[in-house]
Amino acid sequence: MTASINGQRTYARATWLFLRLLGVVYLTAFWSAGTQILGLIGHNGILPADQYIRALSAIQGLNRFWIFPTLTWISASDAMLRFLCLGGVALSALLIAGVLPVPVLALLWSFYLALSVVGQQSL
């Protein structure tokens, strides 16, 4: 009985540590992207996200959303790009604090996926 309790404690500690460290990785990634996002994929950036999304809009049907899964279909404005970065920083802080890890992880994944898809090769 004691071994299984210790095993569960080890699993809980490993999970706790893994989630906090993953939160730090996400925090670093979103913070770094946030400092560069407008210069890279902003309206006047190297690879403008709004122009990329406009070009992708030529793809007919709903298949484009499956091929290019990004929240920037809603908007690829500079404000949306900043929102994704700052939202990622805030969600990372929640993950580090241990607040609702499952929904926070899903949102972190979708925010970073959105930026990486619309960022093409830059992020």
Please give the structural blueprint.
Layout: H1 2-41, H2 49-56, H3 63-67, H4 78-97, H5 101-118
Span of the ends, CA to CA: 49 Å
Structural class: mainly alpha
- Quote the average pLDDT: 89
The residue fraction in helices comes out at over 70%
User: What is the 3D shape?
Assistant: elongated
H and E string: HHHHH
Largest sheet: none
Radius of gyration using CA atoms only: 18 Å
Q: How many helix segments?
A: 5
Q: What is the strand content? A: under 5%
Poorly predicted tracts of residues: none
What does this protein structure show overall?
The chain is an all-alpha fold and 123 residues long. 74% of the residues lie in helices and 0% in strands. The protein contains five helices and no strands. The chain has helices at residues 2-41, 49-56, 63-67, 78-97, 101-118. Helix 1 (2-41) packs parallel to helix 5 and helix 4 (78-97) runs antiparallel to helix 5 (101-118). The mean pLDDT is 89.
Give a brief rundown of this model.
By secondary structure, this protein is mainly alpha-helical.
Descriptive key words:
single chain; about 120 residues; mainly alpha; about 75% helix; about 0% strand
